[in-house]
Design brief:
The protein is mainly α. It has helices at 4-15, 22-47, 55-81.
Length: 88
Amino acid sequence: MKTIAALQDLVTAASLDFEPSAAELDAIEQEMPLIRAEVELLDARIMTLDRPASELDARRIRRARNRVMAARRDLTNRAGTVEPGGAA
């Protein structure tokens, strides 16, 4: 009979040794404006969980949604203009 702990060591030991590559960190850095905008939208929605949304809350959520859409648009446009090989 095999123990679960022995099987778990085989699975998780290798997964903890890896760090993100430079390319992955660059991709995350390029997506940071979108990530920040999505966090801001999430914060705006969380504030309205325990109470009814006021007009101010609705405006805050609408502005946060607009920031997310603008960040997605900018990220998409930037991705379309990148030349292969890193030349812009």
